[in-house]
Amino acid sequence: MSTGTAQIVVGVDVGGTFTDMFFLNEADGSCDVVKVPTTRDDQSRAIQHGITRALGGLGRVATIVHGTTVATNALLERKGARTGLITTRGFRDVLEMRRRDRPNTWGLWGTFTPLIPRDFRLEVDERVLADGTLLRPIEPDQVSQAAQQLLEQGAESICVFFINAYANDHNERLAVETVRAMWPNPHVTASHEILPEIREFERASTASLNAYLQPVIGEYLDRLERGLRNDGLSGNILIVQSNGGVMTIDTACRLPVRTALSGPAAGVIASAHIAQSAGIENLITCDMGGTSFDVSVIEKGRSEMVPQTQIDFGMIIRTPMVEITTIGAGGGSIARIDAGGLLQVGPESAGSDPGPVCYAQGNVHPTVTDANLVLGRINAQQPIGGERATLDVELARHAIQCEIGSPLGLDAMAAAEAVIRVANAKMAGAIRLVSVERGHDPKNFVAMPFGGSGALHVGSLIKDVGLASALIPRYPGVTSALGCIAADMRHDRVMTINQLLAELDTAQLVQRIRESTENGERLLRQAGVRLDGVEVLCELDMNYVGQTHTIAVRLQEQLPDDSTAGAVIGAAFDRTYRATYGRLLEDIPLRVLNLRIAVVGRRPVFDLSVIAPAANTTSTMTGERDVWADGGWHRARVYERLSLPVGERIHGPAVLEQSDATIFIDPGLEGVVDGHGNLVVQRLNPE
Predict the structure, then answer these.
(1) Residue 679's beta-bridge partner residues?
(2) What is the 3 state secondary structure string of 594-651?
(3) 562: pLDDT confidence band, cut at 50, 70 and 90?
(4) What does residue 233 show for φ and ψ, rounded to 5 degrees?
(5) Pairing of strands 31-37, 18-25
(6) Which of 489, 484, 459 is nearest to 472 (CA)?
(7) I need a labelling partner for 265 at 20 to 30 A (CA). Which of 20, 388, 502, 505 fits?
């Protein structure tokens, strides 16, 4: 890319195997991509290494936008901080009781250990009723004694969770002020600041997980920022949220629970942006990295959002998130024969260290990457990332034969293909889960495979699921990093209303919307990031009286500040409910449970034309090689992918290579380069 004095925006996505980076020079539109092995012990080292490798230094970097897996890993591996909880007397076991669910649906056995042990969950006397009435004031001395006890027990972080604090935060606010006055660090979480919403378990879980993550995320981001500043960075550092927006480091340190699905959300944002530029409305994103396969649906140009997610059993995070389904089927996923003699792939992953067998770093258990290498789909002399000279094909073949082939009575090639087929079946199942099982016809959707491994499996996504076609981005291996650059600033707020629509104080509702909007806009201004505009998204969680679950009702217009506001809300509910369930329920009152506000700061639109093939591009075929597919060898042409001009048609079998990923076009498929350099893959003879 150009080396002049320019403003460079860097998108960073940290995965289990690789750390991906996308560099955009805003001055001249040039770009570059880099993949470096993830340093699992300290992700910041890989980021600094990758930026230095691409730019030589950080003096010309204006903004770094970072999607991180630190929070996810800390939760899954239970490596967060030692956390204490102060709660209302009688409610110390909310985290353990949950919703009276169990890990194994079809049995009464199964254990769950909360992240906060019972002896770290202390009670104090206080009580607020569900209508907000203050029944028993807090006693600050009790709170001080509880906090001191937790300090003496070794707590590094603390959460204050009082029952019904969403309705009246008076007691909880005073308790938090007492704790903050004596706590030796800033890691103090108040449930009403994290989630002022009804339902005690979800609020307790979200607030506790926030406290559990605060020291881990705070230390990581502090180390990252200090390292980058010492290397010469003077620009902004932004962190991707699970809702697909970005926030400042200060906000991320205060609300680390919002980074739980940071990286995968960036991939969905990039996919939506790329699909929109290609004129595609219905898309299924398929992000296959080193560890996982993440699937999401984009319908009519909009990604699906959910109010909460479960990271692992019992770990509920209730904050707006891009809806993503994840399975353990990445390039580094380990293949094995289970106790029943069946071939399984994942969820265990070899990661970046030791990595797949072909890395020759001590792993003897074959992975999906090893299988693709043995089948000839990956070039052993040109591994992605550029950090490794070659891959050891014979070592991978030997591992597949010993670990998979011999137990199943197969030779190495058949065993390698079996590994790929099992991985493909798992991915197809995940796609059906978000499409067929939710009433979507796959024929009406286009797949977008990306990540370092996604484009190697494009054929199965089309054939096995029955999708219309697939759209492979220009830089599939760093698509999530590109999404970091395309993401907008965003601040979400939720508050409980819990009133019948007929009795709703609409003037107060309008005032709450106004105050939340002003607060969100203030946070956007404080970030100091260039924005092209601000949009406010407003939703109400509503249901019929007697129903447990709610639907999200989007208010498409600003509510009038008069008595007609109730009719506007009722009409919006009717439209949403009818679209969801096909009919309305007559003569049943409506309830408004929660108000949700999202203040979105629109960052400058990333023009994808800057990465499109140049007008004078000519196709470069680098050779041919044998590739195993459908039970036999095929002679496949090999192309330098980025050299393909607009309109070029490539018939399978073919292999397209680039620095960040490899694409395999199966026999019977063809790829066509569109105007932005994306590769549209479809059947040669569609039915």
Answers:
(1) 472, 673
(2) EEEEEEEEECCCCCHHHHCCCCCCCCCEEEEEEEEECCEEEEEEEEEHHHCCCCCEEE
(3) confident
(4) -75, 130
(5) antiparallel
(6) 459
(7) 388
- Within 10 A of 398 (CB to CB), how many other CB atoms are there? 18
CA 540 – CA 549 distance, rounded (Å): 13
CA dihedral 27, 29, 35, 36 (to 10 degrees): -10
Cβ–Cβ < 8 Å for 210, 83: no
Q: Is the model's pLDDT at 687 over the cut of 60? A: no
Tell me if residue 169 falls in helix, strand or coil.
coil
CA-nearest of 223, 287, 299 to 261 is: 287
Write down the pLDDT at residue 3: 47
Dihedral Cα 406, 412, 416, 419, nearest 10 deg: -10
- What Å distances lie between residue 422 and 121, 466, 569, CA to CA? 44, 17, 48
The Cα–Cα gap between 476 and 663 comes to 9
For the segment 181-232, what is each residue's pLDDT rounded down to a tens digit? 999 999 999 999 999 988 899 999 999 999 999 999 999 999 999 999 988 8
Span 19-55, pLDDT tens digits: 999 998 877 778 889 988 888 788 889 999 999 888 8
Per-residue burial over 29-39, b if 16 or more Cβ lie within 10 Å, else e, is ebbbbbbbbbb
Distance (Å, rounded) from C-alpha 268 to C-alpha 258? 16
Tokens describing residue 46: 């890989």
- Coil, strand or helix at 337: strand
- Dihedral angle at the C-alpha atoms of 116, 119, 125, 126, nearest 10 degrees? 0
| CA–CA–CA angle 322, 238, 310 (5° rounding) | 30
Helix (H, G, I), strand (E, B), or coil: what is residue 564?
A: coil
Instruction: Give the other-Cβ count within 10 Å of 558's Cβ.
Output: 13
Q: Which residues contact 610 (CB under 8 A, 6 or more apart)?
A: 24, 29, 30, 31
Average pLDDT of the chain is 89
The SS3 call for residue 309 is strand
Angle between helical axes of 506-527 and 565-581 (0-180°, round to 10): 80
Q: Which residues contact 331 (CB under 8 A, 6 or more apart)?
A: 17, 288, 289, 290, 356, 367, 368, 369, 372, 451, 452, 453
Query: How far is the C-alpha of 523 from the C-alpha of 360, rounded, in Å?
Result: 49
How many CA atoms within 13 Å lie on the side-chain side of 585?
11
pLDDT digits (tens, 9 = 90+) for 494-528: 889 999 999 999 888 999 999 999 999 998 888 87
CB 466 within 8 A of CB 443: yes
Residue from 535, 521, 508 nearest 592 by CA? 508
Among residues 218, 263, 270, which one has the least CA distance to residue 241? Answer: 263
Tokens describing residue 670: 């063809």
Looking at residue 439, its amino acid is G
Cα–Cα distance measured from residue 350 to residue 330, given in angstroms and rounded to the nearest whole number: 10
DSSP designation for 338: -
CA dist 202 and 273 (Å) reads 32
Say how far apart CA 337 and CA 469 lie, in whole Å. 33
DSSP class per residue in 444-494: G-EEEEEHHHHGGGHHHHHHHHT-SEEEE-SSGGGHHHHHHHHPPEEEEEE
Helix, strand counts (H, E) of the chain: 18, 35
Tell me the C-alpha distance between 366 and 164, whole Å: 52
Give the separation between CA 308 and CA 126, rounded to whole angstroms.
28
Amino acid symbol at 505 = D
Angle at 145 between CA 143 and CA 149, to 5 degrees: 115
Short-list 194, 10, 175, 159, CA closest to 85: 159
Going by the DSSP 8-state scheme, the letter that residue 367 receives in this structure is B
Q: Helix, strand, or coil here: 11?
A: strand
Say if CB 584 and CB 577 are below 8 A apart. Answer: yes
Cα–Cα dist 536/596, whole Å: 10
Taking the alpha carbons at both ends of the chain, their separation in whole angstroms is 44
